[in-house]
Amino acid sequence: MDILSTKGEKLAERPETGDPTIADRVFTTLHSAILTLQMPPGSKFSEAEIAKQLGVSRQPVREAFIRLAQIEFVRIQPKRATEVCKISEAAVLNARFIREALEAAVVRDACENCSDELIDQLEDIVERQRKAVAVNERELFHDLDDAFHRSIAEGSGRGLVWTLINEQKAQMDRVRYLSLAFNEPVVIREHAAIIDALRDRATSRAETAMRHHLSRINSLIAVLRQQHPQYFAATQAVQGTDAGPLNLRVPALVKPAR
Ligand SMILES: [Zn+2]
Description:
Elements: H1 22-35, E1 44-45, H2 47-54, H3 58-70, E2 74-75, E3 82-84, H4 89-113, H5 116-134, H6 138-155, H7 159-199, H8 203-215, H9 217-227
Antiparallel strand pairs: 1-3, 2-3
Helix pairs in contact: 1-3, 2-3, 4-6, 4-7, 4-8, 5-6, 5-7, 6-7, 7-8, 7-9
The chain binds zinc ion.
The site of zinc ion (ZN) has 6 residues, from helix 6 and helix 7.
């Protein structure tokens, strides 16, 4: 099966522009294929197989696998095929917690120091998201969602915070992408509410709108786990324990002596 067929040409056949490197392009191609579930969670691939499909040597594939392992998109196993990680609900919820805390603070800041140009820029992004929905360009919609959040951070002088958010959000990205199948109009409405609050410089309203927008992944994940159970890792009831179930007993209630 040609997993990466939608990319068409072989990467090595593209004209060299000097930048990005072949390893960067292999990373981008595989990242996109994993995000869009062309390479579904739990599937396995060898370096040689990917290198052949992309028409590159094994070295850039190895480098891309290492970068993908760092964001927990793949698990590299010595002498075995590399596996696309299943989606960990706990990791998604942790990433959401960090992201919500950071972006709530960022949007509060933005209310105090954002420019009218930033508001225009955000409106333009949401308009492009509407067009992406109209032509069913889900990956573009997802990229524009990132652009929306990155613009708020950078536009309020918090570009560095976006770097931190970016490191966390990979865990959420496949859930967000999957949810777009039924969630795009809601995302657009939520983005519009954030813009309205920013335009009014309404700090509390902006923070509430941002928290609502990001925390909704909690309910989306439950729906998606039902729709696509094969994409999700088994839930760990208690993280970090491997000593079997706890054997706690509730003491019998003793009626106080009269
Ligand atoms: Zn968003």
